[in-house]
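Case study B.
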Amino acid sequence: MAVIPKKHEMPTQAPEVRAHNFSEVALGYTQEIAVAEAERCLNCKTRPCVAGCPVNIYIPEFIQKVKECDFEGAYQIISQTSSLPAVCGRVCPQETQCESKCTLGKKFEPVGIGRLERFVADWHNAHAEGKAVAPESNGHRVAVVGSGPSGLTCAGDLAKKGYKVSVFEALHTAGGVLVYGIPEFRLPKAIVAKEVETLKELGVDVEPNVVIGKTLTIDELFDMGYEAVFVGSGAGLPRFMNIPGESLKGVYSANEFLTRSNLMKAYKDDPKTPIMKGGNVAVVGGGNVAMDAARTALRLGAEHVYIVYRRSMEELPARREEVEHAQEEGIDFRLLCNPIEILGYNNPDNPRDEKNGFVTGIRCVKMELGEPDASGRRRPVVIPGSEFDLDVDAVVMSIGTSPNPLIKNTTKGLEVNDHGGIIVNEDGLTSREGVYAGGDAVTGAATVISAMGAGKVAAKAIDEYLSKK
Amino acid sequence: MYKIVRKKALNPTVTQMEIEAPLVANKARPGQFIILRVDEEGERIPLTVAGTNPEEGTVKIIFQIVGATTEQLNHKNEGESIQDFVGPLGVATHTEGIKKVCIVGGGVGCAIAMPVAQEFHSLGAEVTSIIGFRSKDLLILEDEFRACSDKLIVMTDDGSYARHGNVTVPLKEMLEAGEKFDAIITIGPLIMMKFVTLTAKPFGVPVTASMNPIMIDGTGMCGGCRLTLNQDGKRVTKFACVDGPDFNAYEIDFDEAMSRGRMYFDYERRAHEEVCNLFKNA
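Model:
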């Protein structure tokens, strides 16, 4: 049988429609498409895709089950190694992981592994009956700090082994970046809530409104009887460019902008938490978070949204799929441009003018690519005399974060690197006995799946550590 | 859910509540704050801790009814609960080495200033408190301040009670008379803190201001609470939630902080009116 050279397209909302709503962009495979896509898998002996997955999902095996129309069987295979399949099927960069290794991909497009994973997880969530069953307790207690992807994965893996796990979350809702950062149109909150619910059924206790490092310290967690602690507290303080005008009204960090819209639901019609809607918006940065912020601004009612990025499309770090979606929706990419000042309204005749201090524009310079820098990417260099202004009403700075100091400052003997990231060994063990860490708290801003991989590695190491105790 | 154990109106627009939150009660120190949400759809608002009772597991908050959320909170009664209550956040007020302190509080800021004054008093420092209000009906916590201050000066802007004028008047008199404070700690409206700082500057007394900017998470994630300090000729961005809320007042760009504080002014006024109408019609 001839191989179908291209992945089956996933149905999506039309760009002109979705640019004005917060419903999910991609609609997922139907059963028919899923089975047809599964048929593309060669079921090769070398199984390179499994090694490409940070949590080593048994990919050919689950795809085989899809071919057989045994979707629940496929789910059971995925859930052996992944705690959050419906999440990963949506937000993993499969094109640089499992799918980049696919044997079929050497000649044609790789198998749409991510799309199949998403289909299987959604099928399970829609059809599965009964609740997950908590295994018999092994009597050991583990504390997990943070309920983002690394924490939930670590908690899930340990709970399946019989550990009594408590997850401490600083915010009022569990999910970490999955609920405050990633927008509804990419990852519906109901899906995250469902995954958290499954963990609770497995016996995981989720405690919101507890800030480790403030409400309780790591040392107090040990005093309370927890025998090991996993720190998955995520990335921290947003970075700014240190250019004039960053404190004007209308300048947000991406974290603040997305948190207002996602966690605090400012995207709804009558929100309790305000956010600036409408007008023109410039998002500075080129990562996935920048794409999320730009597309959120558009959906909140912005007339024109710019991405301002100092390198070219080739270096732009966001996932291709997100970039394409953003372009289809009408986001205006201003590449090889760098902001040098944010401009604000100032009425010199009336210091009480209510418009004073609000953003009116962003001044940029054009850049060209020079010699490669330490990261191997060509360094952007300013083109002299190339200044220009964009008229905007809001600016969203999406240029990364630096680690949160709360846990480092309150935990004696916990070593961090020059960037403030917690130092761990290959098992996720920190410089403190019984304290493990993973995710952005260790690496700085990275992906959901790499955080999940770290949570998984730490769960295995914690299990080995406590089994020996 | 966090239960409201006691509720008391301190004046027509300022309410005191004691909320059951044992973990916070165990840890909170003067100068720190909490964040709460009234209900499941509510916004997160920061409020400074006005006192704790660790034995009972309660935390005291005092708030002025200024917006939609505080209006809603004020409609909750003893025995009812609020959705979320998290803390203690921020860094506690530094007290080390301060033997003689002047606390300058304004309006509802006095609720935050009070536990700081009490802390200094209990540490054996000599405490002078200057508390100011717009008028007599807005006066709060006079007895509490009297109990923990070696000297208390009450001011009203309109002269309807105690001494007429604003808080900088007696502060300037004392400094000119040669009073040597180790520190001045000021808590209240930004404009008042700015002028307290300007008043103290010629005398070289260290001034600490407690900032209360717009905030969401309160744990150093969103950056909404940022303010600018002028340090050695450089403008440095700080986050009130993790670096503060107390800052060296001489470094703070108060004008910028005042401007940022008004970002959602129109929205907040409308939201407050809507909530008021809801309660009126109910």
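The radius of gyration of chain A is 23 Å. The remaining cases will be described in the next quarterly update.
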